[in-house]
Amino acid sequence: MIHPQAIIEPGAVIGKNVSIGPWTYIASNVVIGDNCEISSHVVINGPSRIGKGNRIFQFASIGEDCQDIKYAGEPTELIIGDNNIFRESCTVHRGTIQDNSITQIGSNNLFMAYTHVAHDCIVGSHCIFANNASIAGHVHVGDHAIIGGMVGVHQFCHIGAHSFIAGNALILKDVPAYVMASGQPAKPFGLNSEGLKRRGFDKETILTIKRAYKVLYRQGLSVEEALSAINEMPVQSPELQAFCNSIKESNRGIIR
Question: Which intervals hold domain UDP N-acetylglucosamine O-acyltransferase C-terminal (predicted)?
Fold first, then answer.
């Protein structure tokens, strides 16, 4: 399963049933879980911990030093969950000591060709990054988010769970959970209702979130006023609370 022309440094830990193609390099401080498929011409540096069942395609660079000019070789880490797909020429960098020293990716994500995950990012699970989507340092991406092709996300922004970012968008502020965003700079364009239906949200829950969206974006209220009005809505739910939390926890401010 490991090609004789692959270079695996002493100390690297390779799980069971892992395939590694020719001319791939794996550093000594890398751990790779069971049942991973690593194509040819891949570079994996570390410290990096990669879970089970991941597929990494040719020319991907995983766990490399970050591009932050403040980085001075400190020991930082990349942690990747299970069953992710990294297509051709993806780049994923380790963290910095200016944050928590860790870049972290969950499970069951798809990173299409030429996508970039910068230092100290935290990406949830079940996300899709379309071709050439790039997130700058310290960005957080919630579960089930979809980031379209050629999207650029400014450092420290938060992309809420179940949100949808249209292709070529420029994200300069936080995107609340469930919201669709488009434009340069991006603005809100309604709820990702179709995505919520596909993920099993019932009609009443989606309707409640839509009402909250209209309070936030259609009534001319400040964020604080809108949150107060949403909290007084007669129907409350955990899903609605997640929408409110993604707004309350914003440090950069939300797209308006």
Answer: 174-255
**Of 68, 120, 143, 174, catalytic:** 120
Pick the catalytic residue from 51, 81, 93, 119: 119
pLDDT, tens only, 95-153: 999 999 999 999 999 999 999 999 999 999 999 999 999 999 999 999 999 999 999 99
Q: Which domain holds residue 202?
A: 195-249
Instruction: Out of 191, 221, 240, pick the residue that ends a domain.
Output: 191
Of the candidates 11, 103, 96, which has an alpha carbon nearest to the alpha carbon of residue 50?
A: 103
- On whether both 214 and 178 belong to a single domain, the answer is no
Whether residue 149 is found in the same domain as residue 229: no
User: Is 256 a domain residue?
Assistant: no
Instruction: With a cut of 70, list the residues of the chain below it in pLDDT.
Output: none
pLDDT of residue 105: 98
Q: CA angle, 24 as apex, 22 and 25 as ends, to 5°?
A: 145
Q: Are residues 38 and 85 in the same domain?
A: yes
Could you confirm whether 137 is annotated as catalytic? yes
Active-site residue, selected from the candidate residues 124, 137, 148, 152 = 137
3-state SS, residue 152: strand
DSSP 169-220: -EE-SBB-TTEEEEETTEEEEEE-HHHHHHTT--HHHHHHHHHHHHHHHHS-
pTM above 0.85, yes or no: yes
User: How many domains in the chain?
Assistant: 2
Residues 181, 178: Cα–Cα separation, whole Å: 10
